[in-house]
């Protein structure tokens, strides 16, 4: 059975901690009664309550003492409420802390705008030195967490809530910056970011045969430069980036700067706020992120991209 991103994170970290006594797990009141890490390693599990900034600061101190802290909370509370702590500890101090942020985008759906996060990539990309990842599926999440534990570099790992997906085939840990789901000679190349962006690109590829599709796993500036070089080498004339994030500060915007010779178009959340309740797909539709929007971007002529 395939696990969701956050469950894959918890299981992988619990397993890694069996061999590495320096791994610690911190949660901000989200651990639940049966957190696998808490059950397996209760002396290395810390529930900090609703104190996200303090959790990040504490994790930085633990990293300085030689531990490998993994801190997890809702994406809006990690990237927005605790932004100052993230900037100073992961960025300025370059502390070896891994922040795992579920409920990214609008995966919180019914929880409402307070629990949505369509702005985290814009914030985290502006903090130098932080590795940013948005894995797709259980296997890729596992590889990203394993790599974070080995590297001891500051990481921000973005994931959804309960959705389960099967990763695209890849090898290695860390996984490749770009994983090609389909590489053809098509003029258009779909570039997907995160769980829902990749789901939509796979659905679009099933409707329009022969499209190239590459899934982006790592999203910080250093890795985006690598991705841009590979996309340039692939020779596609038009690039359609699909991401569950605001267009402002998103990955489409970043790739447009890195690939000035290409026609880059983004399909992401528009400037609306979801004002009605709904499940994840319904909430995505309220901000314009649908299969129809992806297909419309594919069909848009290049000269209208900018």
TrEMBL record:
Residues 3-167 form the Transketolase-like pyrimidine-binding domain. It comes from the Bacteria. Signal peptide: none annotated. Belongs to the transketolase family. This is Transketolase-like pyrimidine-binding domain-containing protein. The keyword Protein biosynthesis does not apply. SUPFAM superfamilies: Thiamin diphosphate-binding fold (THDP-binding), TK C-terminal domain-like. CDD domains: TPP_PYR_DXS_TK_like (cd07033). Keywords: Thiamine pyrophosphate. Its cofactor is thiamine diphosphate. GO terms for molecular function: magnesium ion binding. The keyword DNA-binding does not apply. It holds the Pfam family Transket_pyr.
